[in-house]
Amino acid sequence: MSKTVTLNEDDCIGCQACVDICPGVFGFIEGEGKALVINPDGGTEEEILEAMDICPVSCISWEED
């Protein structure tokens, strides 16, 4: 079973920490002030875990495929 990174945009506060840590996975919607997953395979698992750890509202998680 594999897992895919997800981001709950409703909970996102727009700090952009995830984008700074892992720009290959996360992007930012300027008009909405929210982050989003642009490429779930764009970074290492370690980078994604670091983004999860630093997110102040814990809106990044793994979804089982």
Commentary on this structure:
Helices cover 23% and strands 28% of the residues. It has helices at residues 17-21, 45-54, and strands at 3-7, 26-29, 34-37, 60-64. A hairpin with a 4-residue loop joins strand 2 (26-29) and strand 3 (34-37).
List keywords for this structure.
globular; two-stranded antiparallel ribbon; about 60 residues; Alpha-Beta Plaits; about 25% helix; alpha+beta; single chain; two-stranded antiparallel sheet; 4 strands
Q: Sketch the major β-sheet.
A: 2 strands, antiparallel
Number of helices: 2
Q: What average pLDDT do the residues reach?
A: 96
Question: Which band does the percent of strand residues land in?
Answer: 25-35%
**Multimerization state:** single chain
Overall strand count:
4
Domain module tally: 1
Any idea what the shape is?
Answer: globular
The CATH architecture comes to 2-Layer Sandwich
Low-confidence segments, given as residue ranges, are none
> How far is the first residue's CA from the last residue's CA?
6 Å
Can you identify the CATH class?
Alpha Beta
- Give the helices and strands as they follow along the chain: EHEEHE
Provide the gyration radius in Å: 11 Å
- CATH fold group: Alpha-Beta Plaits
Overall helicity: 10-25%
**Can you list the strand order of the major beta sheet?**
1-4
Q: Helix/strand-derived class?
A: alpha+beta
